[in-house]
Each structure stands twice: as structure tokens, then as C-alpha cells.
Amino acid sequence: MKLSHILLALVVSSQVLFAQNRIDGTALDAHNETPDHPYTEVDKSAMPRSAAYNVRLSSYFTTQVNVDENGNNIVGDAGNEPSLAVDPTNPDRIVVGWRQFDDISSNFRQAGYGYSLDGGNSFTFPGVINPTVFRSDPVLDFDSEGNLYYNSLQGDFSCDVYKIEDGGVVWDGPYPANGGDKQWMRIDKTDGIGAGNNYSNWNESFTTCAPGDFTRSTDGSETFETCITVDGDPRWGTLAVNSNGDLYISGISGGDVVLIKSTTAKDPSAAVTWDFVSTPDMDGLLNTGPPINPQGLHGQMWVDVDMSNDNVYMLGSVTRNSVNDPLDVMFIKSTDGGVTFAEPVRINTDDFGNYNWFGTMSVAPNGRIDVIWLDTRDAPTGTVDSVLYYSYSEDEGETWTTNEPISEAFDPTIGYPQQNKMGDYFDMVSDDNYAHVAWTSTINGGQDVYYTQITPEILSADNFEAASLAAVVSPNPFTDETTITFINSNEENTTVEVFDILGKRVTTLLDASVTGQQSISWKGTNEGGTKLASGLYFVSINSGKRNATLKVILK
Predict the structure, then answer these.
(1) Cα separation of 412 and 292, whole Å?
(2) Which SS3 state, helix, strand or coil, does residue 248 take?
(3) CB 313 within 8 A of CB 306
(4) 3-state class of 290 per DSSP?
(5) Are 97 and 150 within 8 A, CB to CB?
(6) At residue 484, does pLDDT exceed 60?
(7) pLDDT per residue over 343-356, tens digit each?
(8) Are 413 and 69 in contact (CB under 8 A)?
(9) Given a cut of 90, is residue 3 above it in pLDDT?
(10) What end-to-end distance do the CA atoms of the chain give, in Å?
(11) Residue 132: exposed, middle, or buried by beta-carbon count in 10 A (0-12, 13-18, 19+)?
(12) Rounded to whole angstroms, how far apart are CA atoms 164 and 94?
């Protein structure tokens, strides 16, 4: 089955909305993770099941991660804010952590995780790490020896680090790691004096050790040093380590994008000090709020390093300063260790006025820069239906490949677990062969966690769009009526058919030669007009050599 990709009207927002959403001091101190619902035991075995969402193409594949023991989707739970780790000693070993909501009627969340031992083709979800305990903001990483670390935020803003050693599946710990809200973690994978060091920073406004927003472990994450402050007070950012073991911390501070460097953090015998604070121009700032992800961030400030030449790259989905555009994925690079940066580059190539959010970046050992984001360029007017897009660069960010859609469209405003957001971030890890992505979508009718593996060279060579048809079904799920919308660039004989989960055709909605935009209604009935049973159905569109298959849920 081919995936669908949307090519419809733009979402245009007013200048007033842009101004209202710009970051200020109040927003910087918001979006903290606190328990607001008590733990309630849920009998997950009694919850409905549906088919997990899995797609296999030559250029990429997507696997649902938060599945039951039989590989099925659990209807009524939710997972978001995924973090990803790939074992450098065994790339077939992939682990994803996320905020697990056992029932969307409650906002109580726990430390969910799933692992794959077959390169992401299938995942096991053993359950949460610390059952009945509120945990949020998962961040995962491996060290160079294949030991796994999971940083988890508690409701009192303290963090713990769990770890798995020797390639097993049993967690050690937890090890208290100081901490605070919106923490991020990075393990030094170099072979220098800082090998294995664990670095973490967070939002200073929500911490167990104020004033303080940084800690370090030099003993395998079993003990962490006293919190210290980071020059520049960065928030909502990530960390990176260059080939010399030097540490970078990114984020925003007030009205600036900031990058902080330390050359002493790698030395276990030295105090951590900060070399400088850069304020590079990204032509915008990170943002929050409606209409997308109403109670969450629109993404983080990403920093990563090309280990072959120590170029420093930064990327984020920002509200632009120079143009009235709500969110663009902007990229900047430094060739002098983060002291100065080149002019910002816009990665998404759509028209202005769309939301390009949750921009996420990683750099492969061979220097390839991978970027993914959610994109509303093809959303029907008045919606924020989003598609996962991908682009990469093999020349240090000077040129970028065509923006490629790698998912079907979904409505990110459904499936909220009593918290109006899909989390605050996605995650990505790159190696020389693949881009590994952990992300959240509602393709299956609720918030679920997915792993996607992209083969960049095959994707760019496949001329992906030539074989796929831009299409969307909305609303989805639906009860009374839904509409299938697509565009035929040329007049083609086109069929639109609906199949049940067993592959039996239940009705034909169109069999005619059409051109231009088409909108076809379906009331959930069979060929004879009888209402069908609730469940999962497939809408198949075939037009000449182009086709699409969309999942639709009848409630």
C-alpha cells in the first residue's frame, strides 16, 4: 500500500496571532510538568485493540512502538514526547522512551519505553519503568560501550537516571540526578578524558537546586555533582559534544537564541566553567501555543556537531522576525567552534503562512545533516492537519534535498490525554546509513509513538511523489460522515474504494475520469447504504499511475 500525502489549501494566520505568540518572560517560565491527576489503576487488558500502524517502503519504514504483547495498538491510551537511542555497538538495538498515559481520561503520566532488537522492524513495550510513579520528560542516550541511560523527571522537579548495562533489558537505579523541568541529557561518546560523562541541563525556573540548571556525572551516572548555573540561562535546548569532548548547550534566553561552550566539562578533575555565550541570529525564536500544540512548545533548539570537522549546527522551528510567518524550520552553522554563525537558512520550501513545527536535527558520523519536522502546507483550510517531512544535506548545510513527505496526514488536535499537546519534542539519531526518528502522531486515531527509519539516498532517488497521490480524509475518526479530498493534476480515470480490515471491498465511491480537486463524502455505509460496524477501514484511491491508501476509523 502506498501512503497518502496532502496537497491542498494553506493555513493562513493573522499578524495579530503571530505577535501574540512570541516568547516573553512569562512563557519562558511556563510549561512546567506537575502532577495534576492522581494515579488510577487501569486494566489495560480490558481496553479495545486495533491494528498497529506499520508501513514498509524501500526508502523508509515506520513501526508503531507503544503496542501490546501481540503487537496491537491499545485504543484509549496515549504516548508522546518520545526520545530515541541507538546502540553504537549494535545498531539493531533501538530504544524509545516516552510519556505514557495509560488512559486519556487522566493526565497522570509514567516512564514508558519500548525496545527493538531487529533494527526497528518490531518493538516490545514491557510497561513503564517505575509503575504508579509520576514521571515525565524522558531523555535517552547510549554511551560508546552500549550502556543505555534514561533520564526521567519526577513531579517535584527532581530527575533520576536509570541505566541498562551489558546489552541486557533490566534497569539499574534509579540514580538521583538533581535536575529540573525541560531537562536534556547527552553522553560523551568520544575516547577522550570525558568518555562516558553524563551532562544534563534544564529550566532554572523549575529545579530542585535553585539557582542551578546543570549537572555532570563522571562515574557512569551513578552519582551527579552539585548543580551549577549555566552562563546565559539557556532554556528549551539540547546538548552536543564535539570530537575533542567539548560541551555545547543550546537554547533561548529572553529574546535571544544562545549557544554556550565549555572546554573544562570533559575533565573529571576540573570544575565546569563556561568559555563563552554566543547569541547567533536565527531570524526568530522558539514559540508556544495555539493553533498547534496549544499547551506545549513548537519544538526545541537543537545543536549538533559534525565530528569530522567540528562544525557546529543549530536548528529550530521559530516564529520569524523578518517575515510574517508563524513557524519555519531555520538552520545556522558555525565553522569556528560556535563563536560566529553564518546567515540562517530556511529548510522548509513551502509558501509562507504554514506551521512547520517540531523541527528536529541530527548529524551522521559522515557529516550528513538530517532534519525532520511536522508541516501543515497541505492542510485543508481551517485545520492544522500535519505531515512528517524530511530533508538532508551532504555539503555542510549549503544545499538541501527536496522536502519529502514521509507520512500520511493526521490531525494533531485529537487524542489529548487531558493535556492539550503532543508533548514538546521529537528525537532523531543519524548514522552513516540511516536517519532514525522517534515521533508522535494520531494516524491511528489517538496519540501514539512511532519509529521511522529513513534511507536518505534511496528516498531522494525514488522520485517519491511521482508514485504517490496527495490525499486526505477528514474528520478521522468519524461517526456520521467524512470527506476524502485529493487532487488530480491531469484528467485521469480514478477509482475511490473502501475496504474492510480483511481486505473485502465494501463500497465504491468513485469510478470516473476527473481532474482538479475532488471532495467525496462517505457516510460509513456499504454499497447498499447500510451503516457499517465501527472499526478500521481503508480508502484506496487509484488514478492512472498514482495511488494512495488511507486509514479511516468509523466510530
Answers:
(1) 8
(2) strand
(3) yes
(4) coil
(5) yes
(6) yes
(7) 999 999 999 999 99
(8) no
(9) no
(10) 23
(11) exposed
(12) 13
> What is the tens place of the pLDDT at every residue in 46-63?
999 999 989 988 899 999
CA 524 to chain centre: 32
The set of cell numbers assigned to 5 is 500525502
- Hey, what's the cell of 403? 522536502
Q: How many CA atoms lie within 13 A of 51 on its CB side?
A: 13
Residue 314 Cα distances to 214, 259, 283, angstroms: 20, 9, 12
| pLDDT averaged over every residue in the chain | 90
d(CA 10, CA 428): 28
d(CA 224, CA 125): 29
pLDDT digits (tens, 9 = 90+) for 330-383: 999 999 999 999 999 999 999 999 999 999 999 999 999 999 999 999 999 999
Quick count: other Cβ atoms within 10 Å of Cβ 222?
Answer: 14
Query: Which own/partner contact pairs does 306-311 have at CB distance under 8 Å and 24+ positions apart?
Result: 306/363, 306/367, 306/369, 306/396, 307/242, 307/243, 307/363, 307/365, 308/243, 308/365, 308/366, 308/367, 309/335, 309/367, 309/396, 310/242, 310/243, 310/244, 310/337, 311/335, 311/396
DSSP state for residue 19 in the 8-state scheme = H
The CA distance from 371 to 389, in Å, is 8
What Å distances lie between residue 371 and 149, 213, 280, 327, 394, CA to CA? 24, 28, 20, 15, 12
Question: How far is 439 from 92, CA to CA, in rounded Å?
Answer: 19
The secondary structure of 387-427, three-state, reads: EEEEEEECCCCCCCCCCEECCCCECCCCCCCCCCCCCCCCE
> 467 near 404, Cβ under 8 Å?
no
* Contact between residue 164 and residue 172 where contact means Cβ atoms under 8 Å apart: yes
* β 60-64/448-454 pair status: antiparallel
| Percent of residues in the chain assigned helix, strand, coil, to nearest 5 | 5, 45, 55
Contact (CB, 8 A) for 308 and 367? yes
208-231 pLDDT, tens digit per residue, is 998 999 999 999 999 999 999 999
* DSSP helix/strand/coil, 58: coil
pLDDT at residue 27 tops 60: no
Q: What are φ and ψ of residue 20, in 5° steps?
A: -70, -25
Pick from 423, 425, 478: nearest CA to 101: 423
Q: To 10 degrees, the CA torsion angle through 30, 35, 36, 41? A: 150
User: For residues 148 and 87, is the Cβ–Cβ distance under 8 A?
Assistant: yes
Q: What is the pTM of this model?
A: 0.81
How many residues comprise the chain? 555
Tell which residue, 291, 315, 292, 290, has the closest CA to residue 304. Answer: 315
Q: Is 394 left (phi over 0), alpha (psi -120 to 50) or beta?
A: alpha
Using CB atoms within 10 Å of the CB of residue 339, give its burial: 0 to 12 exposed, 13 to 18 middle, 19+ buried: middle
Read off φ and ψ for residue 292, nearest 5 degrees.
-100, 145
